[in-house]
Amino acid sequence: AQSVTQLGSHVSVSEGALVLLRCNYSSSVPPYLFWYVQYPNQGLQLLLKYTSAATLVKGINGFEAEFKKSETSFHLTKPSAHMSDAAEYFCAVTHSGGYQKVTFGTGTKLQVIP
Amino acid sequence: GAVVSQHPSRVICKSGTSVKIECRSLDFQATTMFWYRQFPKQSLMLMATSNEGSKATYEQGVEKDKFLINHASLTLSTLTVTSAHPEDSSFYICSARRDLRGNEQFFGPGTRLTVL
Q1: Angstroms from B15 CA to nearest CA on chain A
Q2: A15: pLDDT confidence band, cut at 50, 70 and 90?
Q3: N or C: which end of chain B has fewer CB within 10 A?
Q4: A-side interface with B, Cβ within 8 Å?
Q5: For residue A96, pLDDT beyond 80
Q6: Which residues have CB under 8 Å from A101's CB, separation 6+?
Q7: pLDDT, tens digit, for every residue of B43-82?
Q8: Do A98 and B46 touch (CB under 8 A)?
Q9: Is A43 in contact with B32 (Cβ distance < 8 A)?
Q10: Interchain proximity A101–B49, CB inside 8 Å
Q11: Min CA distance, B65 vs chain A (Å)?
Q12: How far apart are CA B116 and CA B104, in angstroms?
């Protein structure tokens, strides 16, 4: 069984401030973890993924996330928020071994204040 | 690479009619395609998984006779919402998996269905 919890359905930051979106996972086997971004009325775009290699993963648009097994976390960060970062962000979990279902978190809407 | 398209992007239909949504992988062959449903301000809920040439696997609570899925080729899957009702109004998103080793799914842009 696997699950994802995203703390905070809404996060507001000022432009230029640090972005921190929280994700905790539960998995009975080593997980693969993903962060996706969704703009209004669009599909999901992959920001970054962790697949058991380096624990600090760098993605597109200046985002990065760190896999912390001891904390079962995979928080998404960006040093300086940009207006274009305003969107919905989803954390997702699956694991290796052929096809495995991907489970999505409930999403965090990021608002960037000018 | 790894582009997934959906058609149509928006559709409005009358209650009782059927609507077909297409999902295509444009530059790769998809071993598996997935159909999700997303209600406003909510996450994606997996409806079904389809493999080319075989019957789709539906998630618990999803009516297979209402949401018909056909995966006729490695680049095309279709979702038909039969006898649509207003409660079927939602954002439907497909995704495709390129190979069995990778776990990344590539998402289509979604289809907004409104049933009047």
Answers
A1: 23
A2: very high
A3: N
A4: 32, 34, 36, 41-46, 49, 51, 90, 94-96, 98-102, 104-107
A5: no
A6: A94, B46, B49
A7: 889 999 988 878 899 999 999 999 999 988 889 999 999 9
A8: no
A9: no
A10: yes
A11: 22
A12: 35
